[in-house]
Design brief:
This protein is α+β, with helices and mostly antiparallel strands and about 270 residues long. Helices cover about 40% and strands about 10% of the residues. The protein has a domain at about 110-265: 60s Ribosomal Protein L30, Chain: A, CATH 3.30.1330.60. The chain has a five-stranded mixed sheet. The longest helix is centred in the first third of the chain and has 23 residues, at about 20-40.
Length: about 270
C-alpha cells in the first residue's frame, strides 16, 4: 500500500512588514525633533536672572563689593576698579620686563655687526654703485639696483643677482632678524599679459628674491615679499638717473621689536 505524502500548507507572505520599519522611522524622527526643540529652548527665568546680575555688577561703584557668580566655594575674582579696565591674570614683573628689554637690546646691538659683514661682502658692488647699504638705527636697508637683478620687464634673477644674493644669504641665514624684501619700480607704466601694472612687476621681483633666499637657508617665516610699484620713490622720476635709482629691490633687516610700519615710508 503506497504511502501518502504529506503536503505542507502554503505560508502566506506578510505584506504588512513595512509597517514595522515605518513605525521605527517615525519614532526616531519624533525623538530627533524633540531633542532639537529642547536644545533650542531657552529658560527665560534663568536668562533674566543672569542679565539682572550682570547689570547690577557693572553698575557698582569702585567701593562696592563684587557679586560672586557661579560656584560659591571658588575664590571670587574682583571686578576692576575702573569701568572698562582689564586685569591681567599674571602681570609682568619688573624683572621680566628687564629681561625682555635686555634681550631686545642684545639683539639690536647685533645690527651694526651685520651691517659691517654686509659691507665687507658687497664692497665691490657698493663701489660700482649697484648696492647701497644704510643703517637706520633700528633696521638696516640693502638697496640693490634692478639693472643688475633683472632684465627690463622681467622678474627672473640674473646671474650677477644670484652672486650678490648668495653673499647676503650666507650672512643672514644664521641670524633671526625679520627681513622685508621690497620691490620698487619707476613710474613708467607696464602693460603686459604677465604684469598688467608695476604692482605685479614689483611684487613678482620681491617674491623672486624671497624664494632664492629661502632656498639658501633663510627661514621663510622671517621674510615678507612686498611690492610697492612706483609709489615709494627715492629720486625724481622726471630724470633718467632718478628712474634708475627708483628701480630697485630693498632688503630691510628689522631690529627685534621694531614695528614694520615704521619702515614703510622711504
Amino acid at each position: 500500500m503506497a504511502r501518502r505524502r504529506r503536503i505542507k500548507p502554503t505560508e502566506h507572505e506578510n505584506l504588512e512588514r513595512w509597517l514595522v520599519s515605518y513605525a521605527d522611522f517615525i519614532t526616531l524622527l519624533f525623538a530627533f525633533f524633540v531633542v532639537m526643540y529642547a536644545i533650542s529652548s531657552v529658560n527665560e527665568g534663568k536668562y533674566r536672572v543672569l542679565s539682572r546680575t550682570l547689570v547690577e555688577a557693572f553698575d557698582q561703584g569702585p567701593g562696592d563689593a563684587p557679586i560672586e557668580v557661579g560656584d560659591p566655594t571658588r575664590e571670587a575674582l574682583p571686578f576692576p576698579a575702573e569701568a572698562g579696565s582689564v586685569r591681567a591674570s599674571k602681570p609682568l614683573s619688573t624683572r621680566d620686563e628687564t629681561r625682555t628689554g635686555d634681550a631686545e637690546s642684545a639683539l639690536d646691538t647685533r645690527l651694526p655687526a651685520i651691517e659691517e659683514r654686509l659691507r665687507e661682502a658687497l664692497q665691490g658692488f657698493v663701489d660700482r654703485d649697484l648696492v647701497e647699504i644704510a643703517n637706520h638705527g633700528d633696521w638696516i636697508s640693502v638697496d640693490i639696483k634692478s639693472r643688475m637683478l633683472f632684465r627690463t620687464g622681467s622678474a627672473v634673477l640674473s646671474l650677477e643677482a644670484l652672486a650678490v644674493l648668495d653673499k647676503v644669504a650666507r650672512i643672514l641665514a644664521p641670524d633671526d632678524h625679520e627681513i622685508q624684501v621690497e620691490g620698487h619700480t619707476d613710474n613708467v607704466p607696464i602693460r603686459t599679459r604677465q604684469y598688467p601694472s608695476n604692482w605685479e612687476l614689483s611684487a613678482a621681483r620681491a617674491a623672486s628674491v624671497v624664494h632664492f633666499l629661502a632656498g639658501k637657508g633663510i627661514a621663510p617665516a622671517r621674510m615678507a615679499a612686498i611690492g610697492y610699484g612706483e609709489y615709494r620713490p627715492i629720486a625724481d622720476n622726471a630724470t633718467t638717473e632718478g628712474r634708475q635709482k627708483n628701480r630697485r629691490v630693498s632688503l630691510v633687516i628689522l631690529g627685534r621689536g621694531v614695528d614694520p610700519a615704521r619702515v614703510a615710508a622711504p
